[in-house]
Recover the amino acids of this structure.
């Protein structure tokens, strides 16, 4: 039995709590846009506190354990999913912590998993273009700072469905983590390797949420019948677990922040690898080692309308998209993204910070245990304050974009025979960026009908450009590239 010990490492950027109430909406920023919207001082304070209590001491423990067990082929191995936001805050606030992560990677026993740079919900957008952009950005950052090229994928909060896994497979990753929810697995165990239905090119590993949450949530719970949880007891549970591997995946803040040092959580971690190796049927492994060495036992399917995650007891997407405020935020994000297509100014970078899954997470309105968890992480007095703050800041960004770009109220939707072909544009920049993706017959149809020139005149108010487009005879430009180049030259001018 392989023991996969994996950690999510993430710290968000937080929108200023008084953004709306300080009448910042509609004002001209006197600072860089990121500083205008986000509370950098609060981010720094929280990051350094978590580093002192959790990240730095836990890294030191893992480095020592790996060094002590380096001669044992069964010895400790660890996987991290580190968001790009965390890495850039490491650079800015705590370079020594970043260096300790480098030292962990250099041991050869630590795997860095791929994820979205901004810990976002981009995998749930209408198209995967932004998802791909963030993956590439994350990949570049991990290579630059940690000299590691990820091969295994771990989506934000383990968000997973058939569409996502098939797309991740097309990008060349060998495996992906998902939540071991019973509504998907049914009678099957999360401790085996699976394939997505109809796709033999990527393997799926599942988190064993019961054993993971025993540490992450119940370790210091005195009401729990198994309290206190000791390393030897936990290792014994692992040894009696059947399957190919056991996926233990939890937030890295578990060790010192969520479970305070006074609970004994660091002592537990120090002892666990030694207790695990006392059982001959156990050994540590990284996710990539598991997918390389173990054969899948079955296929699994998760339709988009049954998307899973590790969030809350529902283990779905309702923690981010469970009420109208969250949906308004989510839809506004996508609309602004379409308006920004083809534009590479500072507004686009800031828009990506607004994609953090943490922002709609703070808008969660349901009570009970999940509500307490959401409130614990939120910097705002209530989910309604979080919604007012998030939506006002996002809408302010959109107005600033409209002051910079000429944005149409109604997008141009490319069609062929009246059917959309999957491309649209709100701006000239966006139109230029999608021209090479639009089928030739769609371009010719719109040129013949005068749709392009009419949209540019009526929606963007550019009469001269519209007249120049009308002067093009699409019948005289037979090669597709010649037609596209002629359109692009007019739009760029």
């Amino acid at each position: 039995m392989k023991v996969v010990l994996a950690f999510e490492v993430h710290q968000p950027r937080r929108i200023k709590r008084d953004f709306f109430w300080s009448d910042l909406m509609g004002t001209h920023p006197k600072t860089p846009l990121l500083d205008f919207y986000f509370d950098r001082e609060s981010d720094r304070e929280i990051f350094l506190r978590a580093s002192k209590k959790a990240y730095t001491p836990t890294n030191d423990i893992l480095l020592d354990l790996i060094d002590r067990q380096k001669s044992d082929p069964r010895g400790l191995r660890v996987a991290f999913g580190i968001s790009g936001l965390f890495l850039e805050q490491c650079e800015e606030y705590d370079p020594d912590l970043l260096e300790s992560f480098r030292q962990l990677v250099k041991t050869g026993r630590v795997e860095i998993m791929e994820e979205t740079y901004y810990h976002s919900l981009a995998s749930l957008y209408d198209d995967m273009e932004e998802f791909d952009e963030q993956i590439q950005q994350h990949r570049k950052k991990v290579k630059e700072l940690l000299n590691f090229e990820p091969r295994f994928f771990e989506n934000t909060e383990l968000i997973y469905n058939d569409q996502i896994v098939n797309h991740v497979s097309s990008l060349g990753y060998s495996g992906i983590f998902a939540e071991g929810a019973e509504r998907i697995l049914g009678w099957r165990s999360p401790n085996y390797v699976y394939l997505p239905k109809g796709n033999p090119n990527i393997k799926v590993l599942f988190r064993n949420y019961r054993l993971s949450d025993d540490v992450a949530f119940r370790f210091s719970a005195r009401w729990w019948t198994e309290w206190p949880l000791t390393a030897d007891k936990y290792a014994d549970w692992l040894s009696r677990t059947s399957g190919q591997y056991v996926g233990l995946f939890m937030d890295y803040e578990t060790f010192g922040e969520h479970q305070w040092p006074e609970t004994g959580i660091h002592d537990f971690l120090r002892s666990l690898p030694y207790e695990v190796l006392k059982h001959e049927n156990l050994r540590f492994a990284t996710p990539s080692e598991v997918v390389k060495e173990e054969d899948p036992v079955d296929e699994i399917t998760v339709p988009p309308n049954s998307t899973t995650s590790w969030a809350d007891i529902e283990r779905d997407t309702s923690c981010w998209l469970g009420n109208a405020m969250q949906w308004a935020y989510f839809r506004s994000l996508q609309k602004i993204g379409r308006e920004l297509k083809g534009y590479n100014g500072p507004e686009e970078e800031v828009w990506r910070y607004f994609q953090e899954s943490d922002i709609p997470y703070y808008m969660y309105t349901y009570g009970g245990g999940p509500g307490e968890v959401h409130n614990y992480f939120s910097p705002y007095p209530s989910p309604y304050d979080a919604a007012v703050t998030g939506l006002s800041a996002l809408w302010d960004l959109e107005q600033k974009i409209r002051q910079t770009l000429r944005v149409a109220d109604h997008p141009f939707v490319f069609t062929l025979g009246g059917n959309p072909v999957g491309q649209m544009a709100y701006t000239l920049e966006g139109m230029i960026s999608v021209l090479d993706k639009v089928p030739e017959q769609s371009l010719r149809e719109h040129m013949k009908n005068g749709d392009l020139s009419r949209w540019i005149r009526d929606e963007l108010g550019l009469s001269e450009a519209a007249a120049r487009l009308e002067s093009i005879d699409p019948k005289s430009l037979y090669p597709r590239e010649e037609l596209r180049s002629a359109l692009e030259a007019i739009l760029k001018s």
User: Anything to note?
Assistant: The mean pLDDT is 94. The radius of gyration is 25 Å.
